[in-house]
Amino acid sequence: MEVRKSLVVNATPLETRIALLENGQLCELFLERTMNKSQVGDVYKGRVAKLLPGMQSAFVNIGGVKDGFLYLDDPVVQRLGADLAAEEEADEAASEELPPPPPPLPPLKEGEETLVQVVKDPIGSKGPRLSRHLSFPGRFLVFMPGIDHIGISRKITDPEERERLRELIRSHVEPGEGFIVRTAAIGEKDEDLVGDVVFLRQLWQGIKAKAETVPAPGLVWQDLRLLQKVMRDIFREEVSTFWVDDDTAHREVVSFVENIHPEWSSRVKRFTSDLPIFEAFGIESEIDSARQPKVFLKHGGSIVLNQTEALVSVDVNTGKFVGKKDLEETVYLTNLEAIPEIVRQLRLRNLGGIVVIDFIDMVDPLHREEVLGRLQEELKRDRNHARAGGISEFGLVELTRKRTGPSLERQLTQPCPACNGAGRTQSPETSLLKAYRELVRLGERLRGADIRLTLHPELSAALHQEAREGLLQLARLLGARVSWIERADTPRYAVIMDLQIPGQGSATA
């Protein structure tokens, strides 16, 4: 069945949210908040804070709250890109021959300065993961300074096209340069591919020059913003529409498309309805559902997803589904129906690492093979590299899925202080942004209104000044008067809005 893909962008001064829909269903969600931006791909001039010889690693101060963790002998071949889509991972993107190991980097000493790139954002109590082997994705290529190698994505299967791309890039590389040709390069003009080589080379030269002047610890180069990354990595031929609800973001997307693929211009659409864009597409309710462990299937079955520090567990249940024949048939059909939803939920919730799926026990070996084959086929839709093992005698399937950052739950929530972290509650940023979106939804109805925002002192202290000012600025733009009140008897993680609207009386949101 053909998959219809569309991108939906909700952009505000405080947050950008981008949804990838497949046949109208939310499959992936990307978030960027001004008060908590991802550092992945950013390059820092760090200072070695502590060496750990027994682990061949070090902690490096890059200027953040937590020191970054650096493996001294970083397996660059296994990592490749700080911000690469999974289709370009080393085991997918490299050509059949493995690239040679990079030349050994000089040993580090405590207090020494070194250039590093963030490859994983901080998660929980862990600081960012760092690498000294840098990589820079372009639209068609990934540049890896210091590695003499040209790799071709394995998703480029035409032998003639692979050879054309390899020879073209080989004729333009310089010593000490490595490139991976991305899937997006298929059929592209020679001059566009060479332009990517030149652009990435100049980018690296500029980073090296700036690194000479930046004091350590300090930021040398910041990777693209979320909208730019999505345009570069996801807006491809198969994306039929690109909806945007903000004038500035819309102009940016239109400019990008007109420069790269002008024939796609008609796909970019400005959303102008009074209804918030994520409500209009049914995305907001899907996000709320994705924070619940239980997901119901169409015919009465269900799956339950639980994330722990060690792994993600997925339990399949028949629930109300009783089937039409015997128990084995009911179990088999429930397992089959669960597979697309399991994969969609892993993508939507951004769950990675080890995933254990507890399918309902099947007796028929043909049914077991069919379920495993269907799972492996469905995983091909996932941009993140995922690989499933066999079904155990207990009906368990273990799969690994590449982690690309914190899960959706951990982006939206934080450990609950009332139960010492056993549960999770909304993060301060999520609480504030919910209030922000409610003001946007009310829009012109707030003209002349008095808005009183009441919140717990702990929540107030945790909010960044720019986030607070963004909320107040929006209210002023809407012609409303705002007051900000702290009260200790307010729920810790809620922003309570009392509205006095002319001619309509008072309301609480």
What's the end-to-end separation, in Å? 43 Å
Number of helices, where a helix is a run of at least 4 consecutive DSSP H or I residues: 14
User: What does the oligomeric state look like here?
Assistant: single chain
Estimate the strand proportion: 25-35%
Low-confidence stretches: 77-98
Structural class from helices and strands?
A: alpha+beta
**Major sheet attributes:** 6 strands, mixed
Question: Judging from the principal axes of the Cα atoms, what is the shape?
Answer: globular
Task: Tell me the strand order in the biggest sheet.
Answer: 16-17-18-19-21-20
Percent in helix:
25-40%
Alpha carbon gyration radius: 25 Å
Residue-averaged pLDDT? 85
Number of domains: 4
Features:
single chain; 30% helix; six-stranded mixed β-sheet; five-stranded mixed β-sheet; Nucleotidyltransferase, domain 5; 4 domains; 509 residues; 14 helices; alpha+beta
